[in-house]
Fold each of these.
Amino acid sequence: TNKGVIFDLDGVIVDTAKFHFLAWRKLANDLGFDFTEEQNEQLKGVSREDSLKKILDWGELELSKTEFKRQMALKNENYLSYVAKMDEDEILPGVQKVIDYLVENNVPFALGSASKNARNILKKVNLLDKFDAIVDGTDVSKAKPDPEVFLIAANKLNIKPENSIVFEDSVAGVQAANNAKMISIGIGEQKTLGEADYVFTDFTEIDIEFIKKLLTK
Ligand code: BG6
Ligand code: MG
């Protein structure tokens, strides 16, 4: 095959999306307001800095530069306290079988994540050396929905954007894949991720036959 696969991390490979939500929500609560799970969809795939900007907008708050930085650090500290307890069991159901199939069939695959904690998390769940390339929040300057992260990943895998298959759980990430002219597969709800070429609730719903077909098409 001349095709390759790019995985988002949070909410696709591992269920860390829930930890991000808990940590951001605590930050908002400590600042005296709250936000909904629906609003949280807008934070998925978005960088740490842009997430805090959005949340402060919702709370109609402005922070000094120093306080902004301090809040980002506090959020990350809180988030990492959840991450510390992670192990292989946190790999989302059905993901391992897809990764095993790609490895067995020599299909190149990369990580394309906005997170600066990506390598740390992959290590915790024992997947760090499986990837042919890793592109994360420390490698990019433009956040999803900009296609930068996925274009760099495809380039590292030596595959063309139109031959790249992207798994994403966020609206911004699906848009980034579409902006890169890649094949986008949404993991989550159709009503949220309707812009994707295909949508599955989770990886247990993805048949290896489907992956095979996409790779040979
Ligand atoms: C994305 C998550 O993968 O990474 C966002 O969907 C998160 O929720 C972003 O804010 C940045 O992550 P980190 O780990 O660098 O704060
Ligand atoms: Mg995600």
Amino acid sequence: MHQQSQRCALVVGGAGFIGSHLVDRLLARGDRVYCVDNLLTGRVENLAQCEDHPDFTFLQADAADFEIPEPVDAVYYLASPASPRAYRRYPLETLAAGSTGVRHSLDVARRHGARFLLTSTSEVYGDPQVHPQREDYHGNVNPVGPRSMYDEAKRFAEALVTAYSATFGLQTRIARIFNTYGPRMDSEDGRVVPTFVRQALAGEPLTVAGKGEQTRSLCYVDDTVAGLLALLDSDESAPVNIGNPHEITVLELARTVLSLCGRKPDDMVFVPLPPEDPQRRCPDITRATSALSWRPTVGLEQGLRLTIAAARNG
Ligand code: NAD
Ligand code: UDP
């Protein structure tokens, strides 16, 4: 028997890196949780800790084809390949996840009278010409470039969510997530933090792309998840950047990971920069701090220590 006030959340893409942490947080605060995932880039092992939880149900299904058998209050949409390696490997699946998957999940939210939160991305800004990026910057995206399947899928998804809100009065939220890292990232998905951590622990040189002068702003996953929860419960229907404004170069990141793993600070090799790799990326989080009273709390070294410890134990 469920308590009368218990909320029910649906996490589409919940077997992935961020989604599994979101599921953990929702269960910890007492929600019932459904997770829909087709396991394209996610793993059931990410959800091993909730397998026997009485309030948790996993459905292996595509985001474009599922039903939920009980009333749902909130739909968190995270389904999509997310690493450059994954979305290049699955270009059509990525475009489908941002279009038909989002549309079906919006229809589910409509039927249930649920709020809908889309996890969009800083990639909607492309290789930005404005710095740091505010939500009113419209971006610099090549629609036929090597990242277009991901960037344009997310831009389309934002447009779809906006149209559902305007047409049907659906309560919608758009989170533009900036680079997030932490335990449970796939060590083989090519993203910079799990790659550097894997290489540093294996005693291999770190593969720094280009001269390592490009920047990213890295947010620890617990902070990102807290931002998503705050956004869903807020009244903010415009897009909101969720990220950590502490901007560093890839070279600085490599040196920090090497030092935290007890390795020599210059044990790295320089590899070609991927085509159209964004040069700078840093969120302006003014909107998140004012509308959600949210800001990241985990510093880079602290977050990297937690990530490295999990990788050592995993
Ligand atoms: P992830 O690959 O670990 O998780 C994505 C999950 O979606 C996986 O479990 C995958 O199997 C599932 N999925 C993909 N297509 C699906 C479909 N059609 N139907 C059902 N499930 C499907 O990636 P992540 O890093 O956890 O990212 C989660 C979301 O956050 C993504 O939408 C991503 O675009 C967004 N995001 C992540 C970051 C980041 O730095 N991690 C940054 C910006 C945006
Ligand atoms: N990168 C790197 N070495 C690696 C993997 C990535 O130097 O082994 C760089 C990559 O070229 C980019 C940055 O790290 O400049 C972040 O890459 P990631 O794939 O994590 O995410 P992106 O922000 O590019 O989507």
Amino acid sequence: MSVGIDEISFYTSSYYFDLRTLAEVQNTDPEKYYVGIGQEKMGMAAPDEDVVTMAANAASPLIERVGPDAVSTLLFATETGIDQSKAAGVYVHRLLGLNANCRVVELKQACYSATAALQMACALVARDPRRKVLVVASDIARYDLNTPGEATQGCGAVAMLIGANPRLVSIDPEVGNYTEDVMDFWRPNYRSTALVDGKYSTKIYLKSLKKAWESFREASPLVFEDLRHFCYHLPFSRMAQKAHQHLVKLNKAAMAPEQIEAQIEPTLSYNRIIGNSYTASMYIGLCSLLETCRENLAGQRIGFFSYGSGCVAEFFSGTVQAGYEQHLHADRHSKMLSEREALSYDEYLNLYRHPDPRDGGEHELPHITRGRFRLAAISHHKREYIPC
Ligand code: CAA
């Protein structure tokens, strides 16, 4: 029996800010963003959207298909936590109408935790192959204005049903891990934006890739040449290009630049126009590969590099299943992305500065999201989520 990703769906806000507009305001060359970091647009959450509503939007089409009783566990990965105690997934559990016997927990380790959730889900499915595990990863990437990180913001959520004999990608059991206590990117509880040592974070990312790959090579019989495409954690798409060049060099693989590029380019299309979605980003990259790559990927092995600052990294692999293309949500995703609305600089600042009330008073939120669920109010320190 194989175990892995049976179905995958993602969601991002209906509003985006174009990095050309940011470059204009900053009097910077837009090519710095479009080429230098490889990003074009960044998703901006509406005031009545957060990690809960985005996750429910991503997951609802999957639950509509399998029914709420098929899911034994909901694992919610995020680094945009809304509560120090209650798991955000409990709200999602209600919004999706999941069975009361379904367990729910939230996982955190920067952008890595969705991969921990995926591996735990595979183990749970191996124990009880009749049920599925729902993994959701949902984040809003926020940095201070007028910092180098500002251009690498974004928002998005991904939902994956993990099951036995999966229809999309089986996941191999061998993994390579690397953990080191470093301060490259972090967000203390009292801050709404992340702190980051940008250049250092890119160096640690590459070091972790080398270490996780070496650990993977000790665990797995696979060699570099067995892997056809590579999905990397995507803080910005140029990071994946640098990482892949690094991996090719480590393996002394004789490849032309176009061949190196072809192994990752199809994974980048969605993230270039959504921006960083932290925990969700590598899996939105997988959606991009499965849904936009012109080649038939059936039978191909994919390498995955998951990185969470602080830091924990993991390299693992999986195989695309025959017939995968019949089980994708490509049309819905492409419609959602093409119908988004561009924000002016002032509108972007309004969304960026939207207050996160902490006073325990009554706060009704305007209905702005075009998603299926919204945060309608915050009242007496309680968040009220409703379907639209
Ligand atoms: N045309 C083309 N390219 C240009 C250009 C122009 N006019 N102007 C500049 N560039 C290029 C630069 O040469 C540079 O390319 P190289 O890296 O290949 O040298 C690139 O654009 C970026 O320019 P800078 O070096 O000036 O970088 P910056 O100071 O603007 O900051 C950054 C870049 C450090 C990534 C910053 O965006 C940042 O801090 N981002 C947040 C942190 C981050 O994403 N880190 C990634 C690793 S950590 C992680 O992965 C976890 C996570 O999700 C956060």
